[in-house]
Amino acid sequence: MRLMKSFLASLVAIITVAFVAPPSFAQEADRVHVDIEQGNLNPMPIAVIDFLGDSAAAQQVGRDIAGVIRADLDRSGLFRAIAPDAFIERIEATNIPPRFAGWKNIDSQALGVGEVLPQADGRILVTFRLWDVFGERRLDSFEVPPRTPDGWRRIAHHIADKIYEQLTGERGYFDTQILFVSESGPRTARIKRLMIMDQDGANPSFLTGPNAMVLTPRFAPNSRVLTYMSFETGAPRVFLYNLNTNRREVLGDFPGMTFAPRFRPDGNGIVFTLDMNGNSEIFSMDLQSRARQRLTNHPAIDTSPSYSPDGSQIVFNSDRGGSPQLYVMAANGSGQRRISFGEGRYSTPVWSPRGDLIAFTRQGGGRFAIGVMRPDGSGERILTESYLDEAPTWSPNGRVIMFFREGRGEGPRLWSVDLTGRNLRRIDTQTEASDPAWSPLLP
Amino acid sequence: MRNTVLALAAVAALAACASRPEPTPTQPTGGNTTPPVTTPQGPTPGSVEDFRVSVGDRVFFGYDRFDLSTEARSVLERQAAWLRRYPNTRVLVAGNCDERGTREYNLALGARRAAAARDFLVSLGIDGGRIESVSYGKERPLDARANEEAWSVNRNAHTQIVSGAVS
């Protein structure tokens, strides 16, 4: 348990330093001690066995599920899934405690065991147990509600989320989807189509055709309704798209072009930009009453609005001070104040789902960076930087940021980075890709 | 400024290349007199080509700017004169940006550029009802390269004849 505890403590320390502000001296000292002197940022070794099954088919599903869980945990950067061929002990049943010695031997801090139980109706039920190897105790035990066999990846992501939650104290983010813009064709005649895929890149599918250029998709809080901007009708227009009904509609009937949409956190409203003859202003619209409200009134550019998770405030982008900077206002437009005062040009603000930070794109010195700051503008940190990094989107637990990166003269690709600035990874997509939007945890 | 002029020249040259095919040189043969060689004509007056080549369909902007330069104004004055001469034509003015800005900000900036060009045409007496405007932000670059020269070309307001031109 001692080792386990120190691993847990270091994970908590990483998360604490990232989120709690300002860090106390003790936490700062703790972070330095854990992160640098002890080198404890090594990912936690964890063993997940191929899930058991009483038939060849169930065993195959069990192997597939375990593979996806290991890949999720590995990609988080917080864990290192031990390769199954290093396992010494062979688990024969999930309902009895493992013999811990063999797992201690390979330094596995935690052990996940599961079983695939095909049901009479064709669905599969999966049971799972998580063990603290050095503490020699059970941490978690549960059944995943039955799903049809083609839902096995979601079962795996769900279990990975539970493991993450048990071992870090944070909600997971694996059972989620990514909306993005798939790009193809020459730069001067780009084809941009809306695409959706699982968080790990599996199950990609197109949502729009090749003829209308689509930009900046975003999820509603229920993950089943989307908003995006499209040139489908000529000028830029905000669209709503219901994935359940496949119904698509233009948002409202406005005299100018509409763009930069985002949902209100309750899902019943949209905030967006309306441009009338070169003057862009931020509007909100209630999706039930269709009542619209103008929130800014300034000849400068006002765009890229994003709500705080409690819906009370909006961060947005304006060049009213002479260059693009970040501003915050109340949800009714009152109390507009600038929050970004660092070097450079700030844009694309996105409020963290936890409410404590705002992610942004910062441009300066010929480069583009992704960073975060507190809602009052303090504590600015740059996480990653390149020729072009743009459009941050938050994992639902507020720990990871996805964005797109373009090398000079190259096409864009999706990348993710931890809030610590570590664990920078490219997300594999079949085509070039931009404008990612991370869904909430799927229902 | 020099970049803009270069860019304008480059665009004009490109446009000229694209619109005027090289005349086939005709060699005199023997002592026979051949029929007179037809010299290439310019584009048909009042045509889309005429507007694009003879008048100039793009004006260019500085980085993150939407104010009209002297050159831009003189191109727009030529556009206005042409639009007065062909009063049945309608145009779409599209604002464009280079790739060195973020997407939504550039949509707003492109809208400002389109509006600047449109407002200037209106101030020269063109009926605003004949002019639509749109912003393509950084989505429709003219020059695919990633360098200053390309970016200066990609920051523009592009006037396209959408109807009423002589075909």
Outline of the structure:
The complex is a heterodimer of chains A (443) and B (167). Chain A is α+β, with helices and mostly antiparallel strands.
Query: What's the tally of helices of chain B?
Result: 5
Largest sheet of chain B: 4 strands, mixed
How many individual β-strands of chain A?
A: 30
Helical content of chain A stands at 10-25%
How many angstroms separate the termini of chain A?
Answer: 34 Å
Strand content of chain A: 35-45%
Query: Whole-number average pLDDT of chain A?
Result: 91
- Poorly predicted regions of chain B are 1-31
Main β-sheet, spatial strand arrangement of chain B: 1-4-2-3
Total count of strands of chain B? 4
How much of the residues of chain B is beta strand, in percent? 5-15%
Question: Which pair of chains has the greatest number of interface residues, and how are they split between the two chains?
Answer: A-B, 43 and 32 residues
CATH architecture of chain B: 2-Layer Sandwich
User: What is the CATH level 1 assignment of chain B?
Assistant: Alpha Beta
Determine the CATH superfamily of the largest domain in chain A: TolB, C-terminal domain
- SS element count, helices of chain A: 5
Distance between the termini of chain B: 35 Å
Average pLDDT metric of chain B: 85
Helix content range of the residues of chain B, please?
40-55%
Would you give an account of this structure?
The complex is a heterodimer of chains A (443) and B (167). Helices cover 17% and strands 41% of the residues of chain A. Chain A is of the alpha+beta class and 443 residues long. Chain A has three domains: 1-42, no CATH class; 47-168, Rossmann fold, CATH 3.40.50.10070; 177-438, TolB, C-terminal domain (Neuraminidase, 6 Propeller), CATH 2.120.10.30. In chain A, a hairpin with a 5-residue loop joins strand 10 (214-219) and strand 11 (225-230). Chain A starts with a helix and ends in a 5-residue tail after the last strand. Chain B has a single domain (2-19, 45-163), classed as OmpA-like domain (60s Ribosomal Protein L30, Chain: A, 2-Layer Sandwich), CATH 3.30.1330.60. The longest helix of chain B is centred in the last third of the chain and has 21 residues, at 103-123. In chain B, strands 1-4-2-3 form a four-stranded mixed sheet. Chain B has helices at residues 2-19, 48-56, 70-85, 103-123, 148-154; strands at 58-60, 90-96, 131-137, 156-163. Chain B is 43% helix and 15% strand. Chain B has 167 residues and is α+β, with helices and mostly antiparallel strands. Chain A binds chain B through residues 186-188, 190, 192, 213, 215-216, 229, 231, 234-236, 256-257, 259-260, 273, 275, 277-280, 301-304, 317, 319, 323-324, 347-348, 361, 363, 368, 388, 390-391, 406, 408-409, 435, and chain B through 64, 66, 99-105, 107-109, 111-116, 118-119, 133-136, 139-146.
